[in-house]
Amino acid sequence: MKFMLIEDRISRMEKYNSSIVNIPQVDIYTGNKFEVLINSLKNNDTTILDNYACIAAHRTALPDKIRESLKDYCMTKDKPLIFFSGGISASVLKDNPFPFLNLNSKDFYSGNFNLFCEALEDLGMPNLLILQFGAKWKLSLLLNLRNLISVHMNRRVLVEKSIDGFENKKLVDELSMVRDLKLSKLLIKDLISENESLVFLNNPYQSIDGFVFLEDPNESIDGDRIKIEKIKILKKSVDNLIFNSI
Length: 246
Fold this sequence. Notes:
Helix content is 46%, strand content 11%.
């Protein structure tokens, strides 16, 4: 399984991580190879991209039209895309509508790059979370998720103790549906394996608790509310996975 790396500044890559040129899974597009690729994309020819499981590109090396072309291609193919640049201050990963990671060049070329390539070979699929968080990617996500759940539950207590809870509904609105948990597909799989009752996590439009207000039709497509008890079960499963990850 191959990984396309589009990089016009090869000296920077070698400065940060000189071992990349020896990684068999990585196909580096630089120099003349880079120019040929850009010309193909300008002519809307994306055939060459079909040979790769994942694409990474130096963002500022690409014209706006080419960047958009890459995003459209990856969205259509549901293929992971990575943009890296020295001007990106924080890593941001979006799982929908396709896996898309933005991160700083130095972070991209860190030791996580090698771990990512090893996982690509071993698992037969790209895991952008390894590039973002490293070997402890799962633990990082679980800790963030537990924090989100805890904040939500604490705010819910404040609403329930409030004399005018309806007026304060915005305190808990930020976690009204499964999609608000921002779960990766890989994490959902582990959570369901931990507790099969969490199968509702596969439905991003499922409401989580009774604080969903159904006057907004987009809040609950199937109308099946999930009560606070489900959140407690989810938190327990998260705690168990964290314990097993340490």
